[in-house]
């Protein structure tokens, strides 16, 4: 996967704009440049697993919107109050355990592995997960 092309967006070459904000945030999260792709609609694909454990995140910035994760996506052990910005599709497992979630709104639409949302502010039920997400394997609530 390749990163965006700097010359496609004049704001990027000036060091400003949404793409630059996305790149800076991904760098802060220690995600290597060769592991992500920023799509034309400014969503982000990740090649492989993405583990955002213990990053002290309470929500993803408004300019962060993951699209496809070609592996597992884990945002557990944070202070998340929202899943807005989470991937649309997770090819592996999805973990959002040990946060402060009271809603699963914003969770992935498709998870090809397991969906684990245990130990949040509220105890979710499988029925709620199934309404929001097509989960291929098990759901842990």
Number of helices: 3
- Placed side by side, the strands forming the largest sheet appear as 1-2-4-6-8-10
Give helix % range.
10-25%
Radius of gyration: 15 Å
Largest sheet: 6 strands, mixed
What spatial form do the alpha-carbon principal axes imply?
globular
Structure at a glance:
By secondary structure, the chain is an alpha/beta fold. Helix content is 16%, strand content 18%. It contains three helices and eleven strands.
Structure, explained:
With 141 residues, the protein is of the alpha/beta class. It has one domain (6-140). The protein is 16% helix and 18% strand. The protein is built from 3 helices and 11 strands. It has a 6-stranded mixed sheet with strand order 1-2-4-6-8-10, covered by helices on one side. It is globular and about 40 Å long. The mean pLDDT is 92.
Q: What's the helix and strand layout?
A:
Elements: H1 10-13, H2 18-28, E1 36-38, E2 44-46, E3 50-51, E4 66-69, E5 73-74, E6 89-90, E7 94-95, E8 110-111, E9 115-116, H3 126-132, E10 134-135, E11 139-140
Parallel strand pairs: 2-4, 3-5, 4-6, 5-7, 6-8, 7-9, 8-10, 9-11
Antiparallel strand pairs: 1-2
Keywords, separated by commas or semicolons:
alpha/beta; 5-stranded parallel sheet
